[in-house]
Amino acid sequence: MDPGLCANGCGFYGSAEKRNLCSKCYSIFLKDQTISKSKANIDLQQENDNTKQPLIILKENSDQVRAHDNSEKQTCGDIKRCKTCNKKVGLTGFKCRCGDVFCSRHRFPEQHACKVDYKSAGRQILAKQNPVCKADKLDYRV
């Protein structure tokens, strides 16, 4: 018995296990099938979400809305500067464990007089990661 050609007509041989499709056409078929199932699941979830939550409309005073908009504009204009030399650092700033931002010159703790104790912090981390394992002093106990 000679296996039949692919049902899509690509010219390769198909198998009955794969719905008379070749391996490439079968993988495409599986991808399309999973995508359609996921779209159906997403649509069902969106419909369920829309039916569960009622629409609530709140009225706000226009003065409060304007004040809120002005406060957002001020925080967006915050420019990152080096704590030591006050140089603009932008996206290239280095954040230290002390919580401040520094330029490339002052990024190391020795250069900006950082008060964070790195030695004790490292020891604490090692102690947490490597707990002490004490063996029983009497070997004959079970």
From TrEMBL:
May be involved in environmental stress response. GO terms for molecular function: DNA binding; zinc ion binding. Residues 1-34 form the A20-type domain. Pfam families: zf-A20 (PF01754), zf-AN1 (PF01428). This is Zinc finger A20 and AN1 domain-containing stress-associated protein 8. The keyword Zinc applies. It comes from the Eukaryota. PROSITE patterns: ZF_A20, ZF_AN1. Keywords: Metal-binding, Zinc, Zinc-finger.
